Amino acid sequence: MSKFKERLGKLSPKKRLYALETLPGHLAQSVQGERLHQLLTDFDFIEAKLDAVGVQALIEDYDLARVSDVLLSEGQAESLRLIQGAIRKSSHVLERDKTELAGQLLGRLLDFEMTDIQGLLEQAKQSKNSLWLRPLRANLERPDEGCRRTLTGHTRPLNAVAIAPDGKTAISASYDKTLKIWDTDTGTILKTLTGHTGEVTAVAIAPDGKTAISASYDKTLKIWDTDSGSKILTLTGHHGYVLAVAITPDGKRAISASVDKTLKIWDLDSGTELINLTGHTHRVRAVAITPDGKTAISASDDKTLKIWDIESGTEFRTLMGHTDYVYAVAITPDAKTAISASYDKTLKIWDTDSGKELRSLIGHTSSVLAVVIAPDGKTVISASKDKTLKIWETNSGQLLRTLIGHARYVSAVAIAPDGKTAISVSGDHTLKIWDIDSNTFLKTFTDHTDLVRYVAISPDGKLAISASRDQTMKIWETETGTELLTLTDGTSQVRAIAIAPDGKTAISASEDGTLTVWEIDSGTKLRILMDHNGLVNAFTIAPDGKTAVSFSGDSNLKIWDTDSGRELKTLTGHNDEVTAVAIAPDGKTAISASYDETLKIWDLTNSTELKTLTNHTRSVSAFTIVPDGLMAISASSDNSLTVWDLLIGKDIASFIGDYVFAGCAIAPDGVTVVAGDRSGRVHFLRLEGVSH
Questions:
Q1: Dist CA 450 CA 447 (whole Å)
Q2: Backbone angles phi, psi at 204, to 5 degrees
Q3: Rounded Cα gap, residues 534 and 59, in angstroms
Q4: Element (H, E) at 596
Q5: Closest CA to 586 of 650, 630, 556
Q6: CB 349 within 8 A of CB 357
Q7: Which of 7, 127, 201, 597 is 20 to 30 Å from 355 by CA-CA measure?
C-alpha cells in the first residue's frame, strides 16, 4: 500500500473526494514538482481519482505539470506525458469499465523502461485481489502511436463526420439512424439526434455552427439546432437515398446528392427546393462547394465528376479519368484544384478551370472512400476501405504518412479548423481523433496480413498456432513469440484450427467446408475431411483424441471419427450461425459461441442446451475452456476477452483491446492465454488470481 493510499484511507468520504479533486492543483500552484510527479505516478492515486471523478478529470491533472511553472526533469515530464497518453488512449475503455485500468496501463506502457513507469506498473500488478487478465507484453497501442483518442457510442458502422467551425464539437452520422454531437476535447457525447427512419449517410454543419443538416437512406434531409438537438425542418423531394450534403459559405443554401442521379439545391430558411441538377447517369455520391459559394463539384458512380454553376444550375464541364465509382470530392481553399477519391484505389487532383487531371495519388490498397483538404490547402487526408488514412502533400502528391488504427473500413474524415487535428469514422463503430502533425507511429506486431481468426496451444504449452483470414496458419514458440513455420492452404480462408492431444497433428477448418489434418513438424497435409454442406465455422477435438466436433454454416453440430474422417453423428438445435465450439475436459459437455452475442453450454449425451451465457454486446468470435473445466474465456467483436464461471454461468473478469478479438486459447498451465485480433496482433496474457 502506498503512503497516499494509507493517508487517503484515514479521511472521511467527503474529505477524500476533496483531496482527490484538489491535491494535484494545489501541488502545481505551490510549485511542488517532485511531489506532483510522485502523485501522478502513483497507481493508487490514479485508481482512486478515476473511481471518484472519472477519466477526463484524471487526464487533466497531467496537464498541470505541463502548463504550470512546476519544475520537472526532462525524464519526469516524459513519463507523465506517456502515462497521460496511455490513460487518454484508454478513456473509452475506462468509461465502460474502470476495473480495466491495470490491464490498460500494462498493455500500453510495458515497453517503456523508465523507473517511475515500471514502478507504476508494478503497483498495478499488485493492486488486483481478484481474477483478472494481465498482459505479458505491450499488446495495446502505445501512447506515442496511432490515434490520440477513440470515441465510442454508436451501435453500428459510421458513415460521416463534420467538425464545428470553433473546433470544439463534432457530429457523426451512423447506420444506427442517429447523429451524435461530441465534445472533441473530452470525447463525451453531448447529444444524440434521432428522427431519421433510415441510416444517416452524411452531415454538414452551417458556418455559424448553430445548425446542421443530415442526409439519410429515408430519402430526406433534416435540419437540426445543434444547441438543443431539436429538429427544425425536414427536406423532401429526392426519390432515392440521399448520400451527401454540403452547405454554402453564406449558410443560406444546401446541395444534396442522391441515388436518384440528381443533386438538389435547397433554401435553408424555407426548406424549399430551388434547383434540380441533372446530368449524371448513375447515383451521385458526393458534392463539394467552392469557398465563394458560386460553384459545386459532384462525384458519381458514373465514374465522372461534374462542375456546376450554383446560381443557374448549369453544368460547366465533366471531369473524366477514374476507372471506377467516384466516391468523394474536396476543393482547395483557393478553388483552383479539386481532389477526388475513387473505388479504383486512387485519388486524382484536377485543375478546376481547365478540367485537366494534374496527377494521380497511388498508395491505398483498396477503394478510397473519402478525402478532405487542410485549411491551408497544403495537405490532403484520404480514407480507405483498406482501414487506413493517408496524408498527402497537395502540390507534389507525395505520401507523407499513413494512419493506422481502425479495425474496419474508414468511411469519412474531417479536419479541424486549426488544421492540427483530424477525426475519422469507421465501420468499426468508432471515431478516432488524430494529431496530424505529430510523428506518432504504429509499432508493427502483425505477422499475419489480416484478422487472426483462431489460435490453439499445444498440450505441452510450448507451441501456439494462429489461423488467419489471409489463408495461412502460423506456428509460434510461446515463450519468445517467435514464428517457427507457416502453413498455407491457399485455396480458402482458414476459419479455425485445433491441435491434437498428442501435439503431432493439427486440424484446420476452411470456408470451402473441409477439415484438413496437418503434420505439425513438417507442415504437410495428411488428409482432408469433407462432408459439410457449407463453410466450417469452428470445431474442436475431444480429450480422447478420437473424435472431433464441428459447427458449420448449416447450423448443425457434427461429431467425427478423426482416424477415418467418418461422420458419427449430427446434432441439431442451434438457431443462429455458430462461430466456435469446444468440448469440456470431461468430454460430456460442449460450448458453442454465436453471432447472437451468446455462448451456449450443451449436454452431448442427450443433445440438450444446459445454459446460455450473456454479457457480450456484439458477436462472440471464439472461446477456450480452462483445463480444469470450471471457467471459459471468450473473444468478441466488442473488443473484449471475457472470463466466465461455467458453474454459475456468469462473467467474472475481462480485458478490452484496441481491436476486435477473433480467437483465443489457453495453455495447459491454466493461466497463459493467447488471443488474436482483427489487426493481426497476437496477444499473450496471464490469468491472475486463479486458486490452484
A1: 9
A2: -135, 145
A3: 50
A4: none
A5: 630
A6: yes
A7: 201
Average pLDDT taken over every residue of the chain: 88
Could you give the CA distance from residue 326 to residue 304 in angstroms, rounded to a whole number? 7
- The sign of the torsion formed by the CA atoms of 491, 494, 500, 503 equals positive
- For residues 338 and 298, is the Cβ–Cβ distance under 8 A? no
**Single-letter residue type at 153:** G
Question: Binning pLDDT at 50, 70 and 90, where does residue 534 land?
Answer: low
Phi then psi for residue 498, to 5 deg, are -140, 155
Provide the b/e sequence for 405-421 (b: ≥16 CB within 10 Å).
bbbbbbbbbbbbeebeb
674 to 108, 452, 668, 686, 689: CA distances (angstroms)? 17, 11, 12, 9, 17
Percentage helix, strand, coil for the chain under 3-state DSSP, each rounded to 5: 15, 45, 40
Nearest alpha-carbon partner for 288 in 313, 306, 302, 273 = 306
Q: What percentage of the chain reaches a pLDDT higher than 70? A: 91
C-alpha 332/C-alpha 442 separation (Å) is: 29
Q: Are 158 and 172 in contact (CB under 8 A)?
A: yes
Cα–Cα distance, 520 to 173 (Å, whole number):
48
Dump pLDDT digits (tens) for 291-342.
Answer: 999 999 999 999 999 999 999 999 999 999 999 999 999 999 999 999 999 9
CB atoms within 10 A of CB 659: 23
Q: Terminus-to-terminus CA distance in the chain, angstroms?
A: 25
Listed in sequence order, the residues at least 6 apart from 238 whose beta carbon sits closer than 8 Å to its beta carbon are 219, 220, 256, 258, 260, 262, 264
What residues have CB less than 8 Å from 613, skipping those under 6 apart?
598, 599, 600, 601, 634, 644, 649, 651
Residue tagged 478532405 (cell numbers): 372
Strand ranges across the sheet with 421-426: 149-152, 430-435, 421-426, 410-415
CA dist 47 and 647 (Å) reads 31
Residue 74 CB-density burial (10 A; 0-12 exposed, 13-18 middle, 19+ buried)? exposed
Cell matching residue 687: 490469468
The least confident of 45-59, 90-104, 228-242, 497-511 is 497-511
Return d(Cα 508, Cα 498) in angstroms, integer: 7
**22 vs 141: CA distance, rounded Å:** 31
Detail the DSSP E strand segments found in 30-148.
132-135
**Residue 135 in 3-state DSSP?**
strand
Nearest Cα residue to 683 out of 467, 478, 497 = 478
CA distance linking residue 640 with residue 644, whole number of Å: 13
Name the amino acid, one letter, at 265.
I
**Beta strands, E only, 377-469:** 379-384, 388-393, 399-404, 410-415, 421-426, 430-435, 452-457, 463-468
The residues that bridge with 58 in the sheet, in sequence order, are: none
Amino acid identity of residue 349, one-letter, is I
Q: How far is CA 618 from the centre of its chain?
A: 13
Buried b (16+ CB within 10 A) or exposed e, 449-476: ebbbbbbbbbbebebbbbbbbbbbbbbb
Distance (Å, whole) CA 545 – CA 547: 6
